[in-house]
C-alpha cells in the first residue's frame, strides 16, 4: 500500500533555511533580515510567498515584524520561554497536578546537583557562593528572598552543563515560580514561612559545600531531600491542586 507524499510548500522551505541560519548563529539577536527584494531574489520567490515564510517564523517567535519606514523583520534567537508557555498549556489541558510538576522538578534538579559536583570549576563555585550570599542577605525580606532562592535553583541546573536538562527545567520553572509566589502572598512573614526559608537556606549552604568537595552522591541526596521538603511545604493541604487552579 502506498500513500502520497506531501511536498513542502516553497514558503516552508524558505522558512526552513532562515530558521537554520538563526539556529546556527549566522543571524544574531536583533539582526535585521535582508530587505524583501533581496530575499525574493535569493530564493526566487514572490512577495506573498516570502511573507508567508515570515509568518511561519513569526509564529515561532524567531522574528518580529516592525512596520513603517524603519521596519522590517528582526531576528530573535530561540528562547526556552516559548517552549515553557506551550508546555504549560498542555499541562493545563491534561489537568496535571502540582504534585506531578513538583515530582518532575525533583527528577530534573536532583541529578543536576550531582552533575555539577562532578564538573564544578572555580568560576562555578564563585557564582554559587555569590548567589548564596545574596539570598542570605535577603532572608528578612520574603519577596526578595524567594526571588534569590529561585535564581539559585536555576543556577544549579544551568551549571550542570546539560543543556537538555536546562530546557526541561525551563518547561516547569514558570509553574514552580507561580506556586512559590502564591505561597509568599499567603504566608509571608509567618513563623512557618520564616522557618521554611531558613531550612531552604541551610540546604543551599550544604549543597555548595558538597559541590566544592566533589561529592556527587551527597549533592544528589541533599538536593533531593531539600526539594521534597520544599514541595511538602508548598503543596500544604492541596496535593491534588492542578496547574489550571494555580493560573485561575
UniProtKB/TrEMBL annotation:
Q: Which InterPro entries match?
A: GntR_C, TF_FadR/GntR_C, Tscrpt_reg_HTH_GntR, WH-like_DNA-bd_sf, WH_DNA-bd_sf
Annotated SMART domains: FCD, HTH_GNTR
Q: Name one GO molecular function term.
A: DNA binding
Q: Which domain of life is it from?
A: Bacteria
Record keywords:
DNA-binding, Transcription, Transcription regulation
Record PANTHER family: TRANSCRIPTIONAL REGULATOR, GNTR FAMILY, UXU OPERON TRANSCRIPTIONAL REGULATOR
Q: What is this protein called?
A: GntR family transcriptional regulator
The species is: Amycolatopsis vastitatis
